[in-house]
Amino acid sequence: MAQNGEIKPVKAPSLNLPASSNTCEVSLINTTCDMTLPTISLIGPTIKGHEDLNLPTYAFYVQNKRLNKRVLFDLGTRKDWWNLPPGVVSAILSKGVSGLRIEKDVSDILKEGGVDLNTIDAVVWSHFHWDHIGNIQLFPKSVDIVVGSPFKKSFLPGYPTGKDSPFWEADFEGRNIQEIEFDDSLKIGKFRAHDYFGDGSFYLLDVPGHAPGHISALVRTTPDTFVFLGGDVCHYPGAYRPSEYIPMPETIPTETKLDKRLPMPCPCSLFTACHPDQEHSRTTPFYRVSTDPDSWYTDAVEAQKSVDKLIEFDGDENVFVAIGHDPSLQDVCDFFPKGTLNDWKQKGWKSSTHWGFVNELPIDGKPGRPPLVVGLLKDGKPYSG
Ligand SMILES: [Zn+2]
Prior knowledge:
By secondary structure, this protein is of the alpha/beta class. The protein has one domain (25-382): Metallo-beta-lactamase, Chain A, CATH 3.60.15. The chain has helices spanning 86-94, 106-112, 130-133, 151-155, 169-172, 269-272, 300-314, 327-330, 349-354; strands at 25-30, 33-38, 43-44, 52-55, 58-64, 69-73, 99-102, 122-124, 144-148, 177-180, 187-188, 191-195, 202-206, 215-222, 225-231, 288-289, 319-323, 375-378, 381-382. Strands 1-5-6-8-9-10 form a six-stranded mixed sheet, with no helix packed on it. Strands 11-12-13-14-15-17 form a six-stranded mixed sheet, with helices on one face. Helix 3 (130-133) links the parallel strand 8 (122-124) and strand 9 (144-148). The N and C termini lie far apart (52 Å). Zinc ion binds at residues 129, 131-132, 232, 324-325.
């Protein structure tokens, strides 16, 4: 039985957000790394007509102006991806990445936006994957690397001494690595948390499953509003939406940026028709973390638990969720160097981005949007080794 009529939302549980009046300014960076991957390598079960997953890639520039500290959260992919350590390049080639194009390194995007790289204190890596670590060698040695445990044990020393390491040995030479050890003394929602600046403005969260030591972050954008920097907690908003906290309305809200091919008003039944759970198609996500043996997930069971915890944040009206690869942010938000995410609530970006992911969903088995990128590109031309 399909769900009909408007559905009353269940109240999301309290996240137990600690009080503070200290905030950070957070800017959303389009890293210019666009990818198309087989959907099944990240989420499942497969929905006919959505075999390709489109993934723009974001980084975040976080400034604590009171303490005069600046950090980055993730770096996208290095522009010359073919110069990643050989094991990483062969994984890109063998795991079915069907489209990859990078126009700029994040270090260049920052410089063009007027940021002196010497003023950056640290780069937080959500995890070790190539589409998040950028090219750290383009940053001064004074820039620390911040990671979740067990990063060092898993990936150091870098290649070639560590023959399976996804990093170059030179990435770490002369550079301080801060590995965060989480404990149970602070929890936000159901995630273990670490108050990075010690003033309540920026928390790192222990978000296990996708990769060893995977972390997300929570930035306080006003005393009572936050942006959740998800990294790869999951890869598509349809893996945490809809939920019982924000059921899918019968008609997609008009503030949603819908593609021109879609009717206005746009009934949600166009999309829920492809939902694998017809009985709960408006209150459970379309997808779960992929359990495919070739997926990019280290521990799919643990990763799904992390996504379930994320759903509580997404259901809170004071939290704007920004995962590392959400295409709908591109249609709505301001990107570095223009503006910040801080006034997201005032600008209504939570509601205007919330259902944007339906643009990617198939209708009657036909793809929503074409692939973002076709082929692995090197300097704009097909990569040939
Ligand atoms: Zn990623």
